[in-house]
Amino acid sequence: MAIRSMGPGAGFGWLSRGISVGFRHPKPLFGGAVLVLLAAMVPTLITLPMQLHALHSGTPLQPTAFLWIMALSVLLSLLVLPLYAGYLKVIDSAEQGLAARASDIIKPYAEGKALRVIGYGVLMMVVYLATFAIVIATTGGGVAHWYMQVLTAGANHLPPPTGLPDGFGITFLLLAVLGIFMMGFYSISLGQVSIRDRGVFGAIADGAIGALKNLLPLLMLALGFVLTWIAVAIGFGIVALLLALIGKLVGAWLMLVLLFPLYIALFLTMFTVMFGVAYHLWRDVCGDDIATGTAQPFAA
């Protein structure tokens, strides 16, 4: 299995195909997105009442309680991760012309592959924390100290510190580059462990190598995301303004009734696009064949 280096234009190709995939296979993909997002909300629904209770009582969370909430959130999130892998497999089935159903997102659990995906999630958390720590250590501890002050102020209902710490600019730049790299790293490694059934360490290695070999198209993909998001935000703002005018004429309740499904549709579309992009990124870099209409690779 070759890990390909794609041309710069591949980034825009991943984005365009990621946007169109949900509209080409709306029933399994949007249906699956609803199921995955409902499952992903479970950790928040469990931990949010604890945080709201602390907020309304006016007493900050004790460190022990905060750690328990964080641990519970991480555990529940890891249990949801196999559904993400199942959703990626649904996209693959739909794109390959095979039978695909929204309920197929549970296949990693049904086929006994969930533990491997959860193990992958644990290792990815370690990778995320390690790379973040390396960036912070490289740029000094000023940003980390400032961030802890922000968290402490929020927990104690105090105003956050004014001003930015020294090294904030270079830290932000490095984290942005790291985020672009991680976008490819996660997409490729998740595709390997979900669709190719690679082992955890093999998938992680493939993700790192694939992202490093495709930094330029990943940069173009990030640029495409920014431009697309600006266009969507402008369009959504215009629609929201029109609905606000209608609400003034008819009633605020009508604006809420019309705006709520618009928010839901936008969120589901974003979710589908995100995984559609991840799938086509993985397919071009590590798939058995290169889909037509994409940029040709530099090297096999």
TrEMBL record:
The chain crosses the membrane at residues 29-46, 66-87, 117-148, 168-188, 218-246, 252-275. The keyword Transmembrane applies. Keywords: Membrane, Transmembrane, Transmembrane helix. This is Uncharacterized protein. It comes from Dyella choica.
